Amino acid sequence: MKRVILHSDCNSFYASVECLYHPEIRKKPVAVGGEPEHRHGIILTKNIIAKKYGVKTGEPLWKAKQKCPDLVIIHPNYPLYLRFSRMAQKIYLDYTDRVEPFGIDESWLDVTGSTGLFGSGETIAQEIRNRIKAELGITVSVGVSFNKIFAKLDRVQ
Ligand SMILES: [Mg+2]
Description:
Layout: E1 5-10, H1 13-21, E2 30-33, E3 43-46, H2 48-52, H3 61-67, E4 72-74, H4 78-93, E5 99-102, E6 106-110, H5 115-118, H6 121-136, E7 140-145, H7 148-153
Helix pairs in contact: 4-6
Bound molecules: magnesium ion.
Magnesium ion (MG) binds at residues 9-10, 13, 105.
């Protein structure tokens, strides 16, 4: 029997969660990064607007500020991100108990045994995208394939 594997990845995870809690910055370039008050640290995530300015994950904050002087830099709030991560996991567990988290914002889901109940891999992927958007307020990309690698490469937003 062919396996059905989903890979779910929260988009711009930290930045998306911060924008939920700070609606006033939603339309601004936003990055989450370490120690902005000391100009130390690096960009951990950025939203799509910051990306358009060429802000890159992993680059020093000062360099990102050079490219995008209006960049709003937010110190990471890991307990908050962990809460969202757990809420996403809870949704995944409604479809299968075979969930393998990878880092804080990615998971593989083996839904091979769930398709009889919930429909095809694509149907489950779409339902997960809709539910995460409706219940958590953030977006996820979900890929579907017959193994973990191809599921990760098959990203649909
Ligand atoms: Mg991600």
